[in-house]
Amino acid sequence: MRNILKASIPMVIGFLFHSTFNIVDAYYVGKISPEALAAVSVSFPIVFLIIALSIGVGTGTTSLVAMACGQKKLGKAARIAEHAILLSIIMSFLFTIIGLASIGPLFSLMGVEGEVEALGLEYLTIILTGSIIIFLTMVGSSIIRGEGEMKVPMIAICVSSVINIIIDPIFIFTFGWGVAGAAIATVISRSVGIIIFLAYLGSSRSWLNFDLHGFKFNIGYIKDIFKIGLPSSLSNVSMSLGMFILTVIVAGFGTEALAAFGIGFRLDSLALLPGMGISVAVITLVGQNVGAGHYERAKEMTYKAGLLATGLMTVIGSFLFFFPVFIIGIFNTDPLVIEYGSSFLSIIPFSYLFVGLSMSISGAFLGTGHPLPSFALTFLRAIVLNTLFAVVLSSVYGVSGIWYGIVLSSFMSFLLSVVWMHVFWKKYLRRG
Questions:
Q1: Which of 105, 210, 247, 394 has the fewest Cβ atoms nearer than 10 Å?
Q2: Residue 111 in contact with residue 248, Cβ under 8 Å?
Q3: How far apart are CA 260 and CA 314, in angstroms?
Q4: How far apart are CA 216 and CA 275, in angstroms?
Q5: How confident is the prediction for the chain on average, in pLDDT?
Q6: What SS3 class is residue 50?
Q7: 110 near 255, Cβ under 8 Å?
């Protein structure tokens, strides 16, 4: 448990500060108007898609670097890191081009129009243009975590978040840039993380020795990153697509419901941070132990980490559950927004009883270099079950039915992940 805490605490703190990007944006943009908040809310599935793709590359990188370090093959680890950086640059440029061309049609598909559409286009154009920053910060932190160093990524995220908190209101209100100011502040503050990562990787503290002058492209490393990272990316893309579908369903209940969903989802992301942080730590810990042949220890870490995540998320969820009206009111005072948002915070926390262990199991699959189970479970939950339950239950319980559907799909996914992981350890790892 000590190793889990040592690896996961910096991750949880880092993710906590990382969540402030969305929380701070929602807080200040919510002061402009419900339309501005709705615009940022409908933009979030696309922003999450950028993060999802970068996490995919980062996950493959962390897993491969961790296993190489566990095998004491530091030269190989450095070559993997170099190719991961190159891949992130290429993918960010492609996503920017495709994204800018797709914003309009996507908003039309979602039924977004008028002022919400105009503000959303303004916000997303800036975020998409700066997507290379998101990719590089994600991959940089993943390389360093693969070494087993968790504090540097935490420091980088914390510094970036504090800068964002400071400049966000200045750009939004003092300069009068509105939602565009929030986007610009996000891009600028995230750039600081890249500087910190470069400083660490170029120092003697890093295990890896980069040789950019003698760089030789090896398609094998790209394939290895994609082998693990692509299913991980698809898992996160599934989450993004699932959120897109939920956003369309919620939009049918009006602008206020959309604004409430935007606030609720950001608060939900905050509660999920312990699970996310522990899951990423599990990738490194399981990867290093599997690389060293310690399979039983890797299995034990997976379940202990899941229980720890569940406990921490339940504590945060309890706070959201008992004070929903007060919390939603911080972001927006519209009565209907508060009503819809309060119902979200009164229902969603029950899913935290199941999600923690599911996240840890997902991290274990990725850490062992077997990402397909993680993708299958995520796809089933985020797209199939969420959509099915949201459509059926919202027709009976209104917008609250969507929240009930999320909880139910989380429970079903939890049961499947536990069974799959049990079979996986027994059938595969014990053969190692």
A1: 105
A2: yes
A3: 22
A4: 38
A5: 87
A6: helix
A7: no
Q: What share of the chain is helix, strand, coil (3-state, %, to 5)?
A: 90, 0, 10
- Give the Cα-Cα-Cα angle 294, 296, 300 (nearest 5 degrees): 120
Please tell me the distance from the alpha carbon of residue 221 to that of residue 273, in angstroms, as a whole number. Answer: 30
- 166 pLDDT band, cuts 50/70/90, is very high
The stretch 212-220 carries a mean pLDDT of 83
Pair 327, 26: CB distance under 8 Å: no
Q: Where are the alpha helices (DSSP H) in 368-398?
A: 372-379, 386-397
Q: How many CB atoms lie within 10 A of CB 276?
A: 24
What amino acid is encoded at 123 in this protein? Y
Q: Which residue has the higher pLDDT, 204 or 267?
A: 267
pLDDT higher than threshold 80 for residue 342: yes
Q: Is 132 exposed, middle or buried (0-12, 13-18, 19+ CB in 10 A)?
A: buried
CA 278 from chain centre, in angstroms, equals: 13
Reference 215, options 80, 71, 72; nearest CA is 80
Closest by Cα among 305, 222, 249, 387 to 11: 305
For 384-393, letters b (16+ CB in 10 Å) and e give: ebbbebbeeb
Query: Domain coordinates of the chain in residue numbers?
Result: 2-431
